[in-house]
């Protein structure tokens, strides 16, 4: 970045921010006409019922004006109707649900609402990259505990459930300053869906140290057989009273650009996320809230989510097959829409020239850059989801998203087969 004159110097809280992975790889995919399996957005629109409702909302006067800062009543009602059975309790749309400007702002507002200078927040590594600045911008200090793949993941395809958290290691990270544990299930980028037993163990640690649990469940409607139920920590062993759950209209209804998300939790927690959010966005964009409400209402009587899961299963199978054909090991995700592939066997030409910005990044940035530019399929280097000290852990991985139409996945598969001659 160019240096501003001292009087225009940025605040400490943003001064160390690097260019993020999305702003490197999304334009690169566009420039090089690569098929973009990088950033996780869909190349298809929301279900017709949702899209129609958005258009209709624009035609009404009220849905173009400010919404209630907690969220439009229709959406909060629809969320209560959809999520009460999921949570096994009657959710109160007045105090236990908050509509947010996407899941990211939901988490930002929660950190703003609970962290003081120096409060520690435990995150599992790899972590979705936004958590870090969201925590530090609000005075918090992220503390990391790893999810580890078994050793045989280097040469065999595994299930995402085999990535494990060591509970004793989690306990060892807790200090008197620890305020919160951030969970992510289904996990980005691994695809792991934490089992009830794992969630119970994590919840018990939170209980022993009186910590808040912030659980990012934005992919909660995308989990795959043999799982028949999505385990939620908020429903287990009385953890409800310390848990805030994050949800996303963008992921559930293929509308990532609408920025409609939500928080669900007990009133005594939600009130502080709400207090902070009112000062960040005041209220969330109105027409899209109406449309997400329509989608949730429809899902009560139509198999919207079941059909979507079926479609995603086909997509997962298409992308997985190409890595099977190439004999590249990967992690088969139990949920979400990413496949983490082990790239150790791919050898790009030794004399390949990379742009300077990549030299300050993890080695996986080079692999993903080469794949994008020369093979024509964009993917994401997962070291972005690790702290710098741990970048080497990600050096042999690339993340491919399958939230794309089948024809695009077929084309990507065809291009990826060109990797054969680079595999040793
Ligand atoms: N959640 C999406 C991903 O992981 C997009 C993230 C973003 O653009 N900030 O790809």
What does this structure look like?
The chain is of the alpha/beta class. The chain has 2 domains: 12-40 and 305-422, Aspartate Aminotransferase, domain 1, CATH 3.90.1150.10; 48-299, Type I PLP-dependent aspartate aminotransferase-like (Major domain) (Aspartate Aminotransferase, domain 2), CATH 3.40.640.10. The chain is built from 14 helices and 14 strands. The strands form 3 sheets. Strands 2-10-9-8-7-3-4-6 form an 8-stranded mixed sheet, with helices on both faces. The chain has a 4-stranded mixed sheet with strand order 5-11-12-14. The chain has a two-stranded parallel sheet with strand order 1-13. Helix 8 links the parallel strand 7 and strand 8. The longest helix has 22 residues, at 304-325. The radius of gyration is 21 Å and the shape is globular. The chain starts with 11 loop residues before the first helix and ends in an 8-residue tail after the last helix. Bound molecules: glutamine. The site of glutamine has 5 residues, from loops.
């Amino acid at each position: 970045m160019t240096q501003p004159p001292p009087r225009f110097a940025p605040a400490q809280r943003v001064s160390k921010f690097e260019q993020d992975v999305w702003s490197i790889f999304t334009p690169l995919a566009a420039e090089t006409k690569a098929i973009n399996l990088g950033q996780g957005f869909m190349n298809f629109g929301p279900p017709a019922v949702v899209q129609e409702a958005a258009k209709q909302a624009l035609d009404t006067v009220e849905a173009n004006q400010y919404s209630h800062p907690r969220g439009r009543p229709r959406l909060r009602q629809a969320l209560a109707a959809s999520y009460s059975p999921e949570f096994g309790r009657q959710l109160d749309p007045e105090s236990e649900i908050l509509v947010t400007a996407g899941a990211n702002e939901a988490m930002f507002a929660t950190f703003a609402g609970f962290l003081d200078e120096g409060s520690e927040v435990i995150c599992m590594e790899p972590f979705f990259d936004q958590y870090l600045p969201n925590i530090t911008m609000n005075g918090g200090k992220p503390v990391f505990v790893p999810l580890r793949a078994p050793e045989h993941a280097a040469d065999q395809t595994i299930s995402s459930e085999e990535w494990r958290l060591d509970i004793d290691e989690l306990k060892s990270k807790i200090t008197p300053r620890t305020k919160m544990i951030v969970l992510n299930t289904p996990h980005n980028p691994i695809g792991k869906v934490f089992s009830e037993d794992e969630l119970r163990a994590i919840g018990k640690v939170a209980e022993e140290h009186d910590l808040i649990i912030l659980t990012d469940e934005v992919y909660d409607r995308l989990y795959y057989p043999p799982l028949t139920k999505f385990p939620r920590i908020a429903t287990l062993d009385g953890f409800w009273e310390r848990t805030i759950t994050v949800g996303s209209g963008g992921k559930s209804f293929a509308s990532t650009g609408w920025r409609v998300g939500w928080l669900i939790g007990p009133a005594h927690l939600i009130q502080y996320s709400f207090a902070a959010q009112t000062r960040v966005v005041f209220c969330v964009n109105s027409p899209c809230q109406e449309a997400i409400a329509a989608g949730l209402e429809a899902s009560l009587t139509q198999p919207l989510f079941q059909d979507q899961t079926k479609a995603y299963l086909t997509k997962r199978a298409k992308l997985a097959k190409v890595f099977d054909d190439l004999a590249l090991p990967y992690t088969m995700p139990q949920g979400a829409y990413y496949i983490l592939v082990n790239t150790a066997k791919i050898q790009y030409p030794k004399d390949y020239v990379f742009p300077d910005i990549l030299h300050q990044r993890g080695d996986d940035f080079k692999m993903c850059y080469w794949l994008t530019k020369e093979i024509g399929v964009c993917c994401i280097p997962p070291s972005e989801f690790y702290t710098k000290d741990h970048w080497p852990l990600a050096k042999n991985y690339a993340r491919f998203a399958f939230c794309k139409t089948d024809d695009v996945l077929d084309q990507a598969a065809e291009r990826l087969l060109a990797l054969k001659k680079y595999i040793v």
